[in-house]
Specification:
The radius of gyration is 26 Å and the shape is elongated. Helix content is 47%, strand content 15%. The protein has 17 helices and 15 strands. By secondary structure, the protein is α/β, with parallel strands linked by helices. The protein binds one RNA strand through helix 6, strand 7, helix 8, helix 11 and helix 13.
Length: 460
RNA sequence: GGCCACGUGGCGGAGUGGUUACGCGCCGGUCUGCAAAACCGUUUACUCGGGUUCGAGUCCCGACGUGGCCUCCA
């Protein structure tokens, strides 16, 4: 069985061959910790968690290294800190914001059934690596100092006439197009409009570190170099898979490639570039101004994390997804059924019918179709396959109990009403038994009569 | 304006040249005092217009629609 992955750089599905099968390496861009993560942020977390699990299944748990960074130095964090903790010194306020938000992020993604990555590096703990990359780039003639900034020059990279990749290869843009399409005013200290920042001076009170490249004033890193540095530290100069949202292809990933390849004289940074598609909410772009900004935290108040997870995986990771209530309800019903059927059975082996679509560029919708097939034929295989995909973390009773708890229904009341109804039915007082059934329905309780008696559950 | 994706039945959503996707819903059946739940069965599609081909949802061209990105940062 071989794994095939779609690679954004070559624009084709290719057989995955690890550089070292004993150490399969994947990097995914993680959150900037300044606010609650929204449901769009959950998509890469879930998609690459499935890939992580699949790689562990194929190569062994000890042989896969997954790195997802936490960006904890950023203007948005500074703004947030100043707003939320106006009485505190900025650096202290920033620490509060990043600690609080990072903690919340972990709570959210744990609930989504995502395994913790092997390493979760923080940008602020890798300033030394960033400085080193910047020094190398300046020494190599790929970057220059201007007004206490360090800027990377894509023009210099493309003029280097070596084995380096062409700047723009990943996002399929030429430098000419970028210049023509630029809508933003170009800072005066840039030599070319396409140059981007590696290091910039900090404003008074902002987080700052000693600057590289002989700059006297303290400064802080640009965003792109953070990921190059963290990937380098934990995965090396060249590794297997780099993932993230499709919005990151340009400029973020294009710039990462440029920095890493020029700093280490590599032809490539990662062998496979994977990007998940965007997410809309109820047919509209998610934005704070439209008022449809949905956080993972809010959704988790109404739905188990696994429902969000299933709902996300119903669509192929590369396609756009429209996040709707209706779809969530459907996902919840499906999981209810799977929990009843498979949560308490002895897991067998993950079914080939599920693995094969996953191996074909993570075709989770087709894998889910196969799960429906197993539901009727092989519940042990269903149980194992669902676990492989990160489901069934609870027992059937816990799953049902969670619904009861959320509904606020007292099981004792329900049991009492059911026995009253059973008595009414026994004396053929159907008017009374139907009244009780209606009363239970109004409480959100569904009655299930069978030859062995009456059971009940919370309706979705 | 430039570059790049996507457009399948009531809904979600696979499928890249010739066979049933699958799930939800609807409808029908079994069961039931009647229902519900459960189980069984049925139904509907490929944005539009050209082209290639014996044959296209699947390849090519164009149009329309939706979305992403366009460099100090999601």
């Amino acid at each position: 069985m071989e794994l095939r992955l779609y690679d954004t750089l070559s624009r084709e599905k290719r057989t995955f061959v690890p550089l070292d099968a004993n150490n399969v390496r994947m990097y995914v861009c993680g959150p900037t910790v300044y606010d609650f993560a929204h449901i769009g942020n959950a998509r890469p977390v879930i998609v690459f968690d499935v890939l992580f699990r699949l790689l562990r299944h194929l190569y062994g748990e000890a042989h896969v290294k997954y790195v997802r960074n936490i960006t904890d130095v950023d203007d948005k964090i500074n703004d947030r800190a100043a707003r939320d903790f106006p009485g505190l010194p900025l650096n202290e306020a920033i620490r509060k914001v990043t600690e609080q938000t990072g903690k919340q992020f972990h709570a959210d993604v744990d609930a989504l059934g995502a395994l913790r990555p092997s390493v979760e590096p923080r940008a602020t703990e890798h300033i030394g690596e960033m400085r080193e990359i910047i020094e190398r780039l300046v020494a190599g003639g790929f970057a220059y100092v201007a007004e206490d900034h360090v800027l990377f020059s894509p023009q210099a990279m493309n003029a280097a006439n070596s084995t380096l990749p062409r700047y723009g290869a990943l996002s399929k843009r030429s430098l000419d197009e970028m210049i023509a399409g630029a809508r933003v005013d170009v800072a005066p200290y840039k030599r070319d409009a396409t140059d981007f920042v590696l290091w910039k001076p900090s404003k008074p009170g902002e987080p700052s570190w000693p600057s590289p490249a002989g700059i006297a004033a303290p400064g802080r890193p640009g965003w792109h170099v953070e990921c190059s540095a963290m990937a380098w530290k934990h995965l090396g100069e060249y590794f297997d898979i780099h993932g993230g949202g499709i919005d990151l292809v340009f400029p973020h990933h294009e710039n990462e490639v440029a920095q890493t390849c020029c700093a280490f004289h590599q032809e490539r940074m990662a062998n496979y570039w994977m990007h998940n598609g965007f997410l809309q909410v109820e047919g509209e772009k998610m934005s704070k101004s439209l008022g449809n900004f949905v956080t993972i935290h809010e959704l988790l108040a109404d739905w188990p994390g696994e429902v969000l997870r299933l709902n996300m995986l119903k669509t192929h990771y590369h396609s756009p997804i429209d996040w709707t209530m209706k779809s969530l309800e459907e996902s919840a019903r499906t999981l209810d059924d799977w929990y009843r059927a498979a949560a308490d059975v002895e897991p067998g082996k993950p079914a080939a019918s599920v693995l094969e679509p996953l191996l074909d560029d993570l075709n989770t919708p087709l894998a889910i179709a196969a799960l429906h097939g197993l539901r009727g034929s092989d519940v042990n295989g269903l149980a194992a396959s669902l676990r492989l995909l990160g489901f069934l973390s609870e027992s059937a009773a816990q799953w049902e109990g969670r619904k009861q708890q959320a509904s606020g229904v007292d099981a004792k009341d329900v049991e009492r009403l059911i026995s009253e109804r059973t008595a009414a039915r026994a004396r053929k007082d159907f008017k009374e038994s139907d009244r009780i059934r209606d009363e239970l329905a109004a409480m959100g309780v569904t009655i299930k009569d069978s030859k062995d008696g009456t059971t009940w559950e919370i309706a979705r």
